[in-house]
Amino acid sequence: MMRRPLPPAERTAGPVVVSGVSSDAHTWNLVFLHLLIEECGHAVRNLGPCVPPDLLVSACLDAVPSLIVLSSVNGHGHRDGLDSIRAVRAEPRLAGVPVVIGGKLDVTGELAPERTRRLLDAGADAVCTDDTGVHRLRAILASRPAHTPLAA
Amino acid sequence: MTAHPSAIRAPDFGPHVRAVARTGGTVVQPRMGFTDPARMRAGLRAVRACRAATVGTITVDSYTRVGDLAAAAAAVGDDTELNGYPLLTHPLPVTRAVLADVAGMPVQVRHGCATPEAIVAGLVAAGLSATEGGPVSYCLPYGRTPLTESVEAWRRSCARLARLRDDGVRPHLETFGGCLLGQLCPPSLLVAMSVLEALFFCQHGVDSVSVSYAQQVDHAQDVAAVRALRRLAHELLPTEDQHVVVYAYMGVFPTTRHGARRVLTDAARLAAAARAERLIVKTEAEAFRIPTIAENVAALEAAADAAVGPGDPVVDVDEEHRIHREAATIVAAVRDLADDVGTALLRAFRRGYLDIPYCLHPDNAGGTRGYVDDRGRLAWDRIGRLPLGGLVRPRQGRRPTAASLLRDLNRVRDRADGPDAAGLPPARPGDALGD
Ligand code: B12
Question: In angstroms, what separates the C-alpha of B140 from chain A's closest C-alpha?
């Protein structure tokens, strides 16, 4: 797993957006991440599976997230994730929002370094594909200000 | 369009499986799909040649499943390995050539698509006539397509398949309702969904059907569930041409060789004990990546070996009756909502008579939850508005945490990977893969 320093947290911290990528239907990963992130003290907007890049961007503009967590396990994540990250990075209003991607991102069981590199070059802040991924995500969450939900 | 005139037509899927199962025991089948046509062709040949009674599979990739044919074409163009065969991307003559060598072995297309008209047209054009899914089970677990659209699309797809009979072909449909999200759904809802989808197929003119059930967390409960499924299907489906198909575990899979083999062996024993005509296997690569041809062949042969021999004599009859009663109650409540099964399914989801645990789809009410009880069996934690009020007493436990969810999800994996594998039989000596 590789990473770059995260951009500073926004002052007004929104929820964490959890999302699948366009061709991936798996949801247990999303349910798990949703619970995990909430338990770390953050509100979650879970967009569900099969989220195309334009839907991801519009949902993020709506949610003003403090962090975007992309998950894919169907083996197409190295391509679909790239499309998602590029779309987010092409939107100036989401410029400061870090993006983390993880799961099983290709069909070989071992993501090639150049595929990781491409995701990072496109603007991912962390690519989590091994056992340490969840610890890494926890650390990232701990470094973000927890979202205070509006009075329920 | 008629089947390719020069092609030798494979026997019809349903009658073939039933005939083989009557004499030779359980028919085994892989979940196999490769991007490269040459590899797909080699895979089908290997399945036909292996030491077991097999039928073939073409598993379709996820781009084709979600209708993103541009992405499938781009991936084929730059030699990216996909998670299945891009059926609508390779030219038709290429797909026909993939199948030409194995004429004589029925081949089924497995595709996970809520709006499968194009895939059905593609498989028919390639000379095939068997596929799987259903308006619910290929919609709610497989993306964001609204259920109403899926029901419409499946009506049209069934009608297209049914027209094959004009050409003397008997099209076959298998429900995926016995799997849904693969884990943490109590058996009665799986059985009910499977039967409801088979009723839908029959109502739309496809009356060669198979009803599915995916292996869950407890062998005795599974045997009871498959027996209940067979009984309910016999009682309710208006066709003789029906059979039962068991799926080897569809949830989080063991990561060790011996663990994967234990779960597969258990699935084969389940199929034998409950006299399922067909078994779909999983390989030792399941937890990590798309399996190779050799891994598929090894799994097919190991499963076929384990499925021979006497079925389990002990049946938990109480459990079988309980599952049958719950499933029959759900099916009856749904059927009461409309004569048209598709309409009834839509109303049932709107009212919460059908409600799949842990399913994030917007058309799912989200009021139910399953869990693994003290005895290690699947049970209801919450039943929402399922019509099971008088029949089950849900636990009404606390909301799961990330850790408790993982514990339930990983249970089968950890038990099988562990050295003692409590409750599971030891792997048989002489298994093809050994340890
Ligand atoms: C359950 C399951 C299904 C269910 C899914 C139901 C649903 N709606 O979720 C069903 C049966 C429907 C299904 C369908 C398919 N599946 Co599936 N499925 C599985 C299975 C068995 C378990 C997945 C699971 O539930 N895991 C539980 C969750 C909690 O764990 P997880 O997803 O592994 O995620 C963990 C980590 O990866 C990590 N993580 C995940 N994302 C992220 C993100 C970040 C930021 C971080 C830090 C960590 C992280 O955290 C989690 C906890 O440790 C796996 C194999 C396995 N693992 O045993 C295959 C598997 C994922 N499926 C696979 C495939 C290919 C498919 C299909 C395309 C069919 C096919 N061709 O075989 C379709 C999907 C269609 C589509 N459009 O995408 C492949 C993927 C191959 C690959 N990557 O190389 C697998 C590995 C099986 C295999 N070996 O072939 N599947």
Answer: 9
Q: Give the CATH number, domain containing residue A124.
A: 3.40.50.280
Distance CA B189, CA A91 (A): 44
What residue ranges in B50-103 does DSSP mark as E strands?
A: 56-59
Question: Domain span at residue A60?
Answer: 21-104+111-142
Tell me if B300 sits within 8 A of B281, measured CB to CB.
yes
For the record, the structure tokens of B33 come out as: 């799909």
* Average pLDDT by stretches of 10, chain A with 152 residues: 54 84 98 97 97 98 97 98 98 96 96 96 95 92 68 32
The enclosing domain of B89 has a CATH number of: 3.20.20.240
Contact B358 A107 (CB under 8 A): no
Asked if B360's CB is within 8 angstroms of A31's CB, the reply is: yes
d(CA B202, CA B341): 10
Determine the Cα angle at B70 with ends B67 and B72, to 5°.
75
Q: Give me the half-sphere count of Cα atoms (radius 13 Å) on the Cβ side of residue A136.
A: 20
Closest CA to ligand 1's atom 11:
B182
ipTM of this predicted structure: 0.94
Q: What is the rounded average pLDDT of the residues B13-29?
A: 95
Angle between helices B187-203 and B147-162 (to 10 degrees): 50
Residue A7 within any structural domain of the chain: no
Task: Identify the contact set of chain B against chain A, taking CB-CB distances under 8 A.
Answer: 62-63, 65-66, 68, 71, 75, 80-83, 112, 141-144, 181, 183, 252, 285, 288-290, 358-362, 400-402, 405-406, 409
Number of domains in chain B: 1
Within-domain flag for A152 = no
Cβ–Cβ of A104/B81 closer than 8 Å? no
For residue B232, the enclosing domain spans 13-307
Is residue B424 in some structural domain? no
Reference B189, options B150, B229, B218, B221; nearest CA is B229
